[in-house]
Amino acid sequence: MELFYREVGEAGSQPLVILHGLFGMSDNWMSIAKELADEGLHVYVPDQRNHGRSGHSAIHNYPAMVDDLLEFMDARELEMAYLLGHSMGGKTAMQFAFDYPERVQKLVVADMSPARSDRGDIHSGIIDSLLGIKLEDYASRQEVSGAMKGHISNERLRHFLQKNLFWKDRGSLGWRVNLDAVRENLQEIFQAIDSPVAFPKPTLFIRGGRSDYVPDEEIPLIKDRFPQSQVKTIQGASHWLHAEDPAGFTKEVSFFLLG
Fold first, then answer.
1. Of residues 42, 51, 60, 239, which has the active-site annotation?
2. What is the pTM of this model?
3. How far is the C-alpha of 26 from the C-alpha of 30, rounded, in Å?
4. Beta-bridge partners for 231
């Protein structure tokens, strides 16, 4: 699938590809992308399938997203790149590194473990809440935001999800994320990532101190599958660590990639 993407940095510089997480899009990462471009990287930020401005498909699993990334890199003649993925994007990045280790120079995984997660039920509830909002009944994004308060109490999550709202035409709102396809494939999204062969290159796992996505008990698994890995914690940050502490997050990524 051809992916929509944003790009910043000078052509010919070391390439970095950033993969957003579930319900995200490339726009969420542009401030960090610009900071890293200022340090000499050529940063590409694609929208993964069923997200942002990229195409929709009933298929939403890691083999498909890995194929999308391979096609994306081949089309831009990126023989090798740094790879950074957050959440669902982190699992895509890990699977790509397992499948095509020769194409990844260094890997950064933001607040995600290779282990299977049981968060599918929570996210199915979020999706059902969004699908239950009849967008045709609302005349503005603010009105939709008010309707979301009755379904989703977490203000940060609500604000994050609202970024998916867009005007399909002058009088009709829609969701950029393909909620139906994601809903049908949640078990695929939260499955484990594994390979018979470990990824042998430098890898950085960055987790939020207030997040439970990378618990201490899963660090031995990380070390086994990524033997050249290190785990850093951004204290005070949740799963959206890159948004809550962008300076601290960018500092860790920059030092690892370029230090």
1. 239
2. 0.96
3. 7
4. 205
